[in-house]
């Protein structure tokens, strides 16, 4: 029985490597997002009007794509380090936050990024209020508020669980 248990535990332990293709897929999506960013930047530069609102909307669109790319990088690095294996790609360029983000921190970073992306979408809608109806605008604001409340609840729960955790 001990041999079967060891084999089962070994299979469970090594199954974490099944996550690696997911992270490779996220790298591919990051490349696709880069192409989208370059196309959006080119359109922004080539077709920009002199109106301030067009400039602001263009910049907000670029920031939105950048936040999404940052979110993907956070998920790739933190997810791989937390669930698959430590990254041993050299310490010189290693971002400071990589070794410090646990699963709770990853959840907070994800929710913070989602709230920021949602806020940009709401701001873009307000700047283009003539293109949106009141119902669409209300939905955007409502969804953003749900994201903000979710982030606050997550932060409170994490703080309470950290306070009640035994100190080592």
Describe the overall structure.
This protein is mostly helical and 168 residues long. The protein is 77% helix and 0% strand. It has helices at 2-14, 20-47, 52-83, 103-127, 134-164. Helix 3 (52-83) runs antiparallel to helix 4 (103-127) and helix 4 (103-127) packs antiparallel against helix 5. The longest helix has 32 residues, at 52-83. The chain is extended and about 75 Å long.
Shape: extended
Count of DSSP H/I helices: 5
What is the structural class? mainly alpha
| End-to-end Cα distance | 35 Å
Radius of gyration: 21 Å
The amount of beta strand, in percent, is under 5%
Major sheet description: none
Order of helices and strands: HHHHH
Strand count: 0
Classify the helix fraction into a percent range.
over 70%
* Overall residue-averaged pLDDT value: 82
Low-confidence stretches: none
């Amino acid at each position: 029985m001990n041999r079967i248990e060891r084999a089962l535990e070994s299979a469970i332990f090594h199954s974490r490597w099944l996550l690696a293709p997911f992270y490779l897929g996220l790298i591919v999506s990051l490349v696709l997002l880069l192409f989208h960013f370059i196309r959006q930047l080119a359109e922004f530069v080539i077709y920009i009007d002199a109106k301030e609102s067009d400039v602001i909307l263009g910049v907000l669109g670029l920031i939105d794509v950048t936040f999404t790319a940052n979110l993907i990088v956070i998920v790739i690095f933190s997810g791989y380090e937390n669930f698959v294996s430590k990254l041993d790609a050299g310490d010189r360029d290693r971002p400071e936050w990589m070794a410090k983000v646990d699963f709770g921190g990853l959840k907070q970073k994800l929710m913070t990024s989602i709230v920021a992306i949602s806020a940009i979408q709401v701001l873009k809608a307000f700047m283009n209020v003539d293109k949106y109806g009141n119902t669409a605008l209300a939905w955007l604001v409502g969804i953003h508020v749900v994201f903000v409340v979710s982030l606050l609840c997550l932060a409170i729960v994490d703080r309470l669980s950290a306070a009640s955790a035994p100190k080592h």
